[in-house]
Description:
Elements: E1 3-8, H1 17-20, H2 28-44, E2 49-52, H3 59-69, E3 76-79, H4 88-100, E4 104-111, H5 113-120, E5 128-132, H6 145-157, E6 166-168, E7 171-176, E8 179-184, E9 187-191, E10 207-212, H7 223-227, E11 238-243, E12 250-256, E13 259-264, E14 269-272, E15 277-280, E16 285-289, E17 292-297, E18 302-308, E19 313-315, H8 317-326
Parallel strand pairs: 1-2, 1-4, 2-3, 4-5
Antiparallel strand pairs: 6-19, 7-8, 7-18, 9-10, 9-16, 10-11, 11-14, 12-13, 15-18, 16-17
Amino acid sequence: MSAIGIIANPMSGKDIRRLVSHATVIDNHEKINVIERVVLGAQLMGVDTVVLMPETHNMAYRAVNLLIERRELACAIEVQDFHIYGTVEDTEKSARLMEEDERIGCIVSLGGDGTNRAIAKEIYHTPMISLSTGTNNVYPDWVEGTAAGIAAGLTATKACDCQDFIQRQKRIEISKNGVFTDIALIDAVISDNPIIGSRAIWKTDSILGVVVSRAHPASIGFSSIAGMREIITIDDDYGGVVFIGENYDELVAPVAPGILEQLGVSPMTRLPFEEAYRWIASCRGTIAVDGEREIYIKPGDVLEFTITRKGPLKVSVPETIEQAQREGKFNR
C-alpha cells in the first residue's frame, strides 16, 4: 500500500505583510482547489491512500466532499485524528505523525517559508513537495497542484527511478547560550526590535543582520539582501551572513512583494558547513526565522548559527515527471 500526506496551512499568506506590501493573496478556496488537484494527480499514479491534516477551516473535508460529489475520488482518504488548536503546533504534529506513518512516501505542503520550516522541524526521512501559498515563498515552489500530485504519486509508489531528483536541503541551526533553540530553512534575521507581536517581520529599520542558507537577488524577502552581495545556491556547501548599517555600501533589495528598499549592506561572510558562527547580542531584540520572530534576545546572549545539510528531502517535480516520461510511465 502506498500513501501521500497533504499538509495545507489555512493561515499561510494571511499575516500583516499582506497589509504592508503587494503580496499575492491565495485564499482558502484556492487552497481547496489545489488539494483536489494534488489528490487527482496522485491517485492517477497509483496512490492508494491520501492522508490529510485536520485544520480549523475544514479545507481537507471540503476538498474531499467536492471530489465525491463529482465522482472523481478513486483512492481512500484519511484525515488525521488529533485535537487541533489553530496554531503552528497543528502543522508540527501532523508532520510528525506523517513521518511516523510507514505508508506515506511523500508529503505535499501548501504554505510559505514558515509552514515549511514547521514541517522541517519534524521530518527527516519522508520526501516533501512544497507548494507556494504563503507570503515569503523562497523555499516552496510555484508548481501546479496536478503536477505536484503526479510527482508525489511517482515518489510514494516508487514507480520510476527518481531518487536522483530528491535532494537533502540545507538549514540554519540556532543555539542561544549553548542551548539548541530553533532552525530556519532560508534565513535568520537579527533585529533590535524586542517585541514578538504579530511575529511577522517586515520593517527593515530594525534589522541588524541576516544569516542565510541560500541567497539570490531574485528572491523576495530578507534573503535577497544577502543575495545582492553574493549568490548562494542550494548546492553550495556553505551559507553566509551580512550586516546592515550606514557605514556599508548601499544596495537595493526586494524585501517584500512590491517593496524595494535601499540599505547599507556589509560584504558577505561565508559560513562553512558545521562551523558555528558566534554573535553576541548588545541590545534587546529578536531573531526572526524564515520571516517570523520567534527567539527573544537580551544583551549578553550568545547566539550561534550553524549551516548544515540536515534539512528535509525535497522532490524536484519537473525532473521526476520527466524521468517518468522517459520510462514510459504515462503510456496507456
